Task: structure prediction
Amino acid sequence: MKVIICGAGQVGWQIARHLSGENNDVTVVDNNPDLVHRATDTLDVQGITGHASYPDVLDRAGARDADMIIAATFSDEVNMVTCQVAHSIFAVPRKIARLRAQNYLTAVYSDLYRREHLPVDVVISPEREVARAALRRLASPSTFDTESFLGGQARLLGIKLDESCPVLNTPLKQLSELFSTLRAIVVGVRREGSLFAPEPGDQLFAGDEIYVFTHEEDGARTLEIFGKPAKRPERVVIIGGGNVGLGVARELEKSASRVRARVIEKSRAQAERAADALSRTIVLNGDGLDIDILREAGVERADAVLCVSDDDKTNLLASVRAKSAGAGMAIALVNDPTMVQLMEPLGIDAFVNPRATTVSSILRHVRHGRVRGVYSIGDAEAEVIEAQVLSTSPIAGRELRHIDLPEGALIGAVRKGDKVIRPSGSTRLEEGDMVAIFALAKDVPEVEALLRVSVDFF
Result:
């Protein structure tokens, strides 16, 4: 597949890294020559320096025979015009645009993106994706990562094991025997900074970060087995009332659990906007680092504090201050992946990475065919691929024990009809089954070959 990626920033570079590693023909376009050189020097991609919306630049990038264009520059307007030019002049079949401004995303204006108007096939809103990710963290507060699969019937849980975990030093095979009715399986372990897919005889140790696939109904029991409480927060303080914080507060107001939330926003204008948009949430105008404001928001009684301002350092410091003031847990929005290593020393429980969230959203739409979902793990260390088994696939009609999966891949869940099961060696995959597969980045191409996705892209 030939793909043009417009914008070589963090998101564009990661998308290029994924797609070029899967033997796609990728060209990166950016008006910053340093970013273009970084991409061409570190990745197997071609680079073009210039404005992505200019027809001659897209022509040099190979738009005349491109299968897809991904517009992820820093400008919403450039992204939209790029898609228009790609459609009107070069007839590029599929166009994806990243749009940040919420005014472009208002439902009443959705007709704007029809092919006869502004031909964007998929619109990705980083703020909305990050808000959804933050809500998932709040729904499962004792995990550092979580995502739903298979129509919401299965979940991936990221769990940090500590000394209180009751199943430390127990081989994974023995865990399956001890909890034979538990629909859960450990698919990934990060130990001392290295992520791997475990073998049945591997043991778990304190300090391990594990990724577990579990049936939605068994989520609470799974957390308890690994020594984590399953209680959801009832009181939440949100520091940052911008698009992300406001989006989270709106969803909490609509939730059936009736979570009580308070928002702290430093900008008076933004605080007034948030107050007008919310009906049951108290909005305080002040600095989230001010202990008096935190106390006014009731931080000492809060089950969770969500720090989602537009500044990483503020989010980290606000998380630390909130925890020291009595908050049950802290979740921080962190753009810079190098700061993630500060989470544990600072006592911050979980984080949301906008870059990884946006990359996952774009990849979900890049991979067509029978791939229904893609979720990026960590700093693009691994992926979870949700796909339908095709009749022509090498895995169709075979038991899992006879499928030659790469060493860094494990099947975490299988859905047959409307029933999700825990996979075992005797599980036979049939045409139409849905599978969720954990795969290290280096093994993703081999997994997709087993799924025979490439023959069904368009």
About this structure: Confidence is low (pLDDT under 50) at residues 453-458. The two ends are 10 Å apart (CA to CA). The longest helix spans residues 126-139.
